[in-house]
Structure formats: structure tokens, C-alpha cells
Amino acid sequence: MRGYAPKSATRLDLEGENVSALAWSVCQNAEARADLVDWLAELCAPELEDIDFAETELGDVMLILVERGGRRMPARSLSDGTLRFLGELLALRTAPEGSLMLIEEIENGLHPTRAHLLVEAMEAAVIERKVQIIATTHSPLVLNALSPEALRAAVLVARPPGSTSTLLRSLGALPGFDEVVARRGIDQLITSGWLERAV
Q: Largest CB tally within 10 Å, which of 94, 122, 127, 141?
């Protein structure tokens, strides 16, 4: 993700390779560029003002974030979390409509106060682009950021005590879930072990 990528690359690879090329392609549209800058500005501090690219004679590009005051941060200097967030945003925006996306541990690398941004982007992609997303998390903050509908549809993967089988249950189907989450909050249900006991 930190290196140059050929402009001709049209998709992210599994490890996020080609993120700079895909960002370059998206940024050819002024509205899409402004939208991407807005999302990244919500994530980054100090405040982000623009996205630029370094280009080679061979047609390769590297993303550069431009901060207030003109400081330029190339992809090779960005944090893992920033690059991962950018890669996930680009994947959500460029995957063919109706795609199935798998994202493991979506909170990895993100500051806890910024996890909600990725949840918002994911829920928007589901509605706007009709993509289906299967994501894993252990983070109460991620679950707290879900809309009520998405939280009820979230699936708990747990092994009940004394069992050798793993069970999958939508949270909304757990007995008393709606009442308990309204009273205690999803973070309390996770940290107290209520979810595993409710299976």
C-alpha cells in the first residue's frame, strides 16, 4: 500500500496493493475527489486539505495527503490505520454494484473514536451501491456505531459452554435482546458476557 502503483490498475488486491492507483482513478472525478478528501479529513489530524499524487515517467503513482499549511505526506509515511481506512473506502466505492465484500477485524488500525466512520461508510455503500458486507469485529465501539437495523442483523458467533459446536445467531433473534440493549447498551452486553449466555 505504501509503494507506487501503475495507473492502469483497476482494483485493490487482497493486501491493499494498488491503493494509490485506485485513489488516482477515483480522484479524476472532482466530486468523488472532494468526497474522498472529506472522509479522510474526518479520520486524519491535523486537518487534511487535499489529495495529490507523485507520478513517475513509467505511469506509476503514489498518493500524497496534503495537510493544512501545505505539508505533504506520501503513502509511504502514512499510518497503517490511515492506509487501511483509505483502502476500505476505495473498495466500498469501486466494487461492482451487488458485490459481496469480506472485511476482517474492521477496527484494526483505527483510533477508537474513528471506528464509526468506517461503519457509516459501510452502511452507506450497502444502501447506495447494493453491496453486501460481511465484517468481523470484537469492538463494542463498532457495534455501538451500527444503525439499529444493522445491529439487530449482526450475527454473534459463539460456542456455548459445554458444546463443541459453534453457533451463529442474529442479535435481534436473541431472547430479550431489544429490551436489554435499550437498558444496558451493546457495550455492556459484550463486556458482561450476556451475549454468549443468551445463545
A: 122
